[in-house]
Amino acid sequence: MISLLKALKDIPRNAYYIGTKVGRYETDPTKMFDFSREKTLWSVDHSLKLLGLDYVDIIQVHDIEFAPNLDIVLNETLPVLQSVVKSGKARYIGVTGYPVSVLKEAVECSNIKIDTVLSYTRDTLIDDTLKKFLPFFQSKGLGIINAAGVSMGLLSNAGPPSWHPAPEHVKEACAAAGQYCKERGVELAQLAQHYTMAQPGIATHLVGMNSQEVLRSNLDILNNGLSALQKQVLQEINTQFFDKIKPVNWENIEITELRKKLEVLGQ
C-alpha cells in the first residue's frame, strides 16, 4: 500500500483507475466476511483513507458466493454501494467471485445497476468456464474483468502457494506441465498469460506482478507473443497434461472448508 501511494503521488488522478473491494476482511473465520450495511460503509471510508483518495473508480462486492445468502448482497450491500456512488466516493459498482454462475445470478436479480464483474481463474489454459457466460455479460453492457490468468500460480514453473484450493490431481498435472516447460527452457506462466490475454470479449485483465522480473516477463509476452519453441511446448503440454484433467474447477471447496471451521467454533 505504501509503495502504491508513493507511485501515485505525482500522477494526475484522472490518469489511472483504482478499484477496491468490500465484503472480505480478516483471516479469522468468524470475521472473514461481512456484507452488512455498517461494515460496508466503514470499509469504503477506510480504503479511501488508506489510499489518500477522495474516490475510487470501482467499488466491488468481493467473493459474493461466501455471503450467507445472495439476498444480503442484493438487498443490503449493493444498495449501500449505490449510496456510495451517489455521494461521489465511487464511480461504478462491481461484483467478484469464483463461481461465474453466481455472478450471473447477481446481475440478473439486482435492482441496483452493476457495472462490472470480476472473474478469476475461469478463462485459462485449464478452465474456460467464463466463455459460456460472456454473451450474457456482454448483453448487459458490463465491463468484464478477467483475473489470475496463471490460475493463482498453478500455471507457472514455480507452482502455486500451499493454500491453493485446487484438488491434488490438478496440482499434480500442473506441476508436471511446469516441470516439462522448465526442462525445455520455457516458462509456463508466459504461455498461460499469452492465452488468457488473447481471449476476446474481455475489457481488462488483472495480472499479479510482485517483482521486476515478472513485470518484464509479462511485457515480453504481451509485446512479442510466443516463439516457435513456446508454441510447440504449449501444444505438447495441452496434449500430455491439460487435456486429461479438463474440466477443472474447485467450486464449493473453500466454502465447505469455511463452514466446517465455523461449525467447530460454534458459529
Tell me roughly what share of residues is in helical segments: 40-55%
Q: Which fold name corresponds to the CATH topology?
A: TIM Barrel
Q: Give the overall pLDDT as a whole number.
A: 93
Largest sheet geometry: 6 strands, parallel
Number of helices: 10
CATH architectural group: Alpha-Beta Barrel
Order of H and E elements: HEHEHEHEHEHHEHHH
| Widest β-sheet, arrangement of strands | 1-2-3-4-5-6
Q: How many beta strands in the DSSP annotation?
A: 6
Beta-strand content estimate? 5-15%
Shape: globular
State the end-to-end CA separation.
32 Å
Low-confidence stretches: none
* Broad CATH class: Alpha Beta
Look at the structure and name the CATH superfamily.
Answer: NADP-dependent oxidoreductase domain
**Radius of gyration based on Cα positions:** 19 Å
Secondary-structure-derived class: alpha/beta
* Domain unit count: 1
Chain-wise SSE layout:
Layout: H1 2-8, E1 19-22, H2 37-51, E2 56-61, H3 70-86, E3 90-97, H4 100-109, E4 116-120, H5 129-139, E5 143-147, H6 168-183, H7 188-197, E6 204-206, H8 212-224, H9 228-240, H10 253-264
Parallel strand pairs: 1-2, 2-3, 3-4, 4-5, 5-6
